[in-house]
Amino acid sequence: MFEIIENLKAPWPWYVAGxxxxxxxxxxxxxxxxxxxxxxxxxxxxxxxxxxxIKFFKYNWRNEFWNLFFVGGIILGAFIATNYLANPNTIxxxxxxKSTLINFGVTDFNHLMPAELFSLNSLSSIRGFILMVVGGFxxxxxxxxxxxCTSGHAIMGLSNLQWPSLVATICFMLGGFIMTNFILPFxxxxx
Amino acid sequence: xxxxxxxxxxxxxxxxxxxxxxxxxxxxxxIFSLLKYTVIGMLFGIVxxxxxxxxxxxxxxxxxxxxxxxxxxxxTAVFVGIFSVAIIKKYNIKTLQGEKIIIVTKPxxxxxxxxxLLFGLGWAMTGACPGPVFAQIGTGLISGFVIxxxxxxxxxxxxxxxxxxxx
Lengths: 191, 167
Known about the structure:
The complex is a heterodimer. By secondary structure, chain A is mainly alpha-helical.
């Protein structure tokens, strides 16, 4: 038993993670006829807390309560994994990426998110503000405009062989490539 | 959603075509029965952290083609998902409550191009999608709340301007 937990603490390989995530699709369908998709939670939270008489937020969000329970589980699971199944070793990062980041003064490779960019303190730096606030805004705005995110389009939509979801997935990736390769090096200069 | 489905609905909700997520089970669920989604969510949250999917570094590696990891995760998930949905359709598998399984299909709109590009930019900046942002909070990352609040503001802003945006 002890050995099993020790093994679970090492980073999980892609095929284990991918299989579990893929199985969430039929699991949700079978246990309650629910379609996998997480970005709609952002809409439900807006509808529940700040509807402001906007038509887009006028619907019965209580009907989608299951998804907020699902998200609650994600928070709990992440807490459990961080506190009881934490990887005792430092995270393995591509050497080339490491040296690029060191050039920008990012040297915290002990966490999943580098502290120089994503700590509360770095929120007062220009780059920290842009990454967290502007980046977060784009995630919320973009996913709703796209009517789905990585789970709703890339996983659920593709699982159901819908071509609009393939278009969306290609555009997600394209946006990511543009940001990481062309815009991010510029943003990271503003410490 | 077809028109006939809309008119048959007994609830007062008017589903607009951009609705991302529609609850298809006609059966009301109690708080206790909703906890089953929390259990699945927990498994998802553990995978997010243990496979380092919520790591900003993994996302950078993906977009710089420096690592196969994220492609492996998404590729396997899609493969397993396609296989599962095909089996559900072929054998007409019902839900545990005995209902017919309904999968929402999303009609194409140009918003999927504009919105997806914008989301891609944000994904590479924050290292977070709308699922992982909650997992980031679960790991104890306080600034995850800042990212979440910004994402909520983004969604709210979309709702505010929805009718004026090209779709």
